[in-house]
Amino acid sequence: MEAKVGIYVDAVNVTMNGGFGLRYDVLRKFACRDGSIPSRMNVYLAYDERRAEEDKDYRNKTARFSEVLRDFEYKVIEKPLQYYRDEETDETITKSTVDMDMAVDMIMQADNLDKIVLLTSNGSYVSVVNAIQKKGTRVELIGFDNMSSKLKKEADLYISGYLIPGLLPIESPYAWGKTGSRVRGVCYDFSHNDGYGFLRFLVQMNENLWITDSRFDESPYNTVFAHISQFEDNFDTSYLPSRDLIFEFDLVENEKGLVAEDIILVSAP
Questions:
Q1: Helical ranges in 42-195 per DSSP H
Q2: pLDDT computed for residue 87 by the predictor
Q3: CA nearest neighbour of 150 among 186, 115, 124
């Protein structure tokens, strides 16, 4: 029997925290990488109805966003912003119920799911994740910037969306992982005495993400040599090695084999 997966995306939170341009078709492929079938795919969007009445571009962009996601069989759930007046400052305050509505849906629907893939950086979901796990459902977390450390620890798997091939646009004439391409990865080993280390990057989306040692044939990762001279000038290499720092770099073939060049930091805690 095929496992059933649910995908839940807090769209505004993801967009505001490094996930602008997210490829939802790639997200679906990643979530179902182990042969699972998508049972629920919900994208939650805070919608400003007042702005939509006055701003045609905002209204049209929101409609197009929903139409594209429908092509990939996602359900877009628009939650209208609520407006409150601050009695002390007389200012209008807006509030969204997206986090509450998404939390309720995940808990209620978890009984019929084997795995949930959650996209948010909001630490308020810690108790929600814990409740879902107690039902026996696995929770995988994908985020970009400003990720809650407590939420990362609570999830069964956390992976930065920057590391998933193709999930975010990247300027390169070659396919991710090919010689000459530009990819993103982490520096898992670095010798400060010798001035070099190794970067690991994901090549394939499959069920073996736990096999991080690229020397094994089953591993979906590849490893590349990185010399200190190739890191951007203002980067402090004393922070290396680190699995929290995300780097973007070129894959170049030379007499030493595959090496990383033009290494820049794209995300840090």
A1: 49-54, 56-71, 98-109, 126-134, 149-154
A2: 62
A3: 124
Tell the residue number behind the tokens 């109805």, with chain if given. Answer: 49
Dihedral angle of Cα 15, 106, 166, 215, to the nearest 10 degrees: 130
Q: From CA 60, how far away is CA 56, in angstroms rounded? A: 6
Largest CA distance in the chain: 70
Specify the DSSP element, H or E, that contains 243.
strand 242-254
pLDDT band of 81, cuts 50, 70, 90: confident
**Residue 83: its pLDDT value, please?**
67
- In this prediction, residue 86 carries a pLDDT of 63
Report pLDDT digits (tens) over 10-51.
999 999 999 999 999 999 999 999 999 999 999 999 888 888
Integer Cα distance of 46 and 153 in angstroms:
27
* Nearest C-alpha neighbor of 264 from the set 207, 182, 179, 194: 182
Give Cα separations from 48 to 52, 53, 59, 135, 164 (angstroms).
6, 9, 9, 35, 31
Q: Which two tokens mark 117?
A: 């893939």
Per residue in 91-118, pLDDT tens?
Answer: 655 567 788 999 999 999 999 999 999 9
CATH superfamily of 4-163: 5'-nuclease (3.40.50.1010)
| Residue range 182-267, CATH number | 2.40.50.140
Rounded Cα gap, residues 83 and 252, in angstroms: 53
Roughly what angle, to the nearest 10 degrees, separates helices 126-134 and 98-109? 10
Structure tokens of 106? 């995940």
The domain spans of the chain are 4-163, 182-267
Q: In angstroms, rounded to a whole number, what is the distance separating the alpha carbons of residues 23 and 105?
A: 23
Length of the chain in residues, anyone? 269
Residue 90 has pLDDT above 80, yes or no: no
